[in-house]
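Example for tutorial group B:
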């Protein structure tokens, strides 16, 4: 399938870039489309992490203020998962480690890639690298809360899986990335817990 990009204009540059594209693309019948003008937010890559403690069945989330819901007349303090823009960092996993430490104070024992996806492909180029980070919720976090120089005020929230899932069902949890991550966890939770228990008792539980 062919795409002819005829012109790109940068309309705005700040936290994101707003581009206006003039283009034509190949239709499913093989012919080229008419010239179309599209506007798109250029955001690059981002990494997001759902923290999970399989031994205690605890989920690690965060709360922070978001202007989007506030402008819709809803509470601006949303419950989400760790996330951050990759910027010029080419390795999303490195960003996942860094953002988890900065926002929660915990360092995951491991990261498992869940999915790579576009949040809103019709209007944004942002690509999300979503991970599950296994961690020990019984340990004390080291710092966390976000970066003061970036104006962040982030509150880590550790709750049982059942509570987090109830928040999804009653729409308290309304961030798309968090919803997707929780649905994945519901499907894979038993496997994660079984594997963690086997790893935990491998030495003492082995027979002679």
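The residue assignment follows.
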């Amino acid at each position: 399938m062919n795409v002819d990009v005829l012109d790109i204009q940068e309309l705005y540059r700040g936290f994101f870039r707003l581009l206006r594209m003039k283009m034509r693309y190949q239709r499913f019948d093989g012919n080229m489309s008419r010239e179309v003008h599209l506007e798109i937010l250029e955001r690059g890559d981002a990494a997001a992490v759902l923290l999970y403690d399989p031994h205690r069945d605890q989920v690690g989330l965060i709360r922070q203020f978001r202007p989007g819901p506030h402008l819709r007349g809803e509470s601006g303090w949303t419950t989400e998962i760790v996330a951050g823009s990759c910027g010029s960092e080419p390795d999303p996993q490195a960003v996942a480690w860094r953002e988890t430490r900065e926002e929660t104070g915990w360092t995951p024992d491991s990261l498992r890639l869940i999915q790579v996806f576009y949040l809103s492909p019709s209007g944004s180029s942002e690509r999300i690298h979503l991970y599950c980070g296994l961690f020990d919720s019984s340990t004390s976090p080291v710092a966390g809360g976000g970066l003061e120089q970036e104006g962040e005020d982030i509150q880590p929230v550790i709750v049982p899986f059942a509570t987090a899932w109830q928040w999804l069902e009653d729409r308290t949890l309304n961030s798309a990335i968090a919803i997707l991550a929780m649905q994945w966890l519901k499907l894979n939770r038993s496997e994660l817990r079984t594997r963690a228990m086997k790893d935990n008792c491998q030495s003492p539980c082995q027979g002679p």
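Strands lie at 3-13, 17-25, 36-42, 45-53, 58-65, 77-80, 82-85, 110-118, 127-134, 155-160. Compare this with the pattern of hydrophobic and polar residues in the output above.
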